[in-house]
Design goal:
Elements: E1 2-6, H1 13-25, E2 30-33, H2 45-59, E3 62-65, H3 73-76, E4 87-90, E5 93-95, E6 100-104, E7 107-112, H4 120-130, H5 144-151, E8 158-161, H6 169-174, H7 181-201, E9 205-208, E10 215-219, E11 232-236, E12 247-251, E13 256-259
Parallel strand pairs: 1-2, 2-3, 3-5, 7-8, 8-9, 9-11
Antiparallel strand pairs: 1-12, 4-5, 6-7, 10-11, 12-13
Helix pairs in contact: 1-2, 5-7
Length: 264
Amino acid sequence: MLIGLIGDVHANHSWLARSLDALHARGITTVIQVGDLGIGFSPTGGRAWHHVNDHLAELGMTMYVAPGNHDNYDQIDQLETVAVGWLEFRERILLAPRGHRSEHDGRTFVWLGGAGSVDRSYRLRLEGMRGARTLWWPQEAVTDADVEATIEGGHADVMISHDAPYPVPSIERSLTAKFDLHDVNDAHQSRLRFTQAVAAVRPSLLIHGHYHVPVNDTWHQPFADPEADTPVRVCGLARDGDDTHGVALLDTATLTVEYLNISG
């Protein structure tokens, strides 16, 4: 079975529509989106998401989401739970609570969204300039309770997340931007809690977003014996506008990920 994967969308609905069309052309009916979908990004977002839901229905698709750090958690916290524990943002757009478990083609999946924002101070300054519009939500960070909920079910074949464990060599090399040190430290603490969940679940494959770059790497337990430690394969999706690394296919038989070029 092939499952579609989509990176950070940031409410770029036109790019999302092209991504869905490209996946539909490959016969995909199940889509996983790795957070920063863009829930609550704009005052007109509600109408736009109705159109996305209609498009998914036309294509016979359902999109499952691990919310990121730039999604409106005030809205998410008000969503109703539907069958098998998903939160219904729209009929065809279902969000995974942290620690949620699902099964696809006989493979077990665990979901842990959220991540810390290194641009928190910048967003809070914008909030002050723009008045009542919220641009940062404290619920974004991964908590100890989220970790406990995630590890309760034990091992899973695949972890779907927004953040990635620490350290992943290619991710650490990509982190060059300068942000407020307090924000960076807080975001790193959320990432370390997330890493605790990865260490306990030990998925064979972890699929994430957040860093806006393609990632094909491995994570090893820190200080573990490299000859005895089984690494976690880490695959990262890029963001909206990246037509070569923002969309991919997951083969559930082999747990391999192939990036899909949607530029044509």
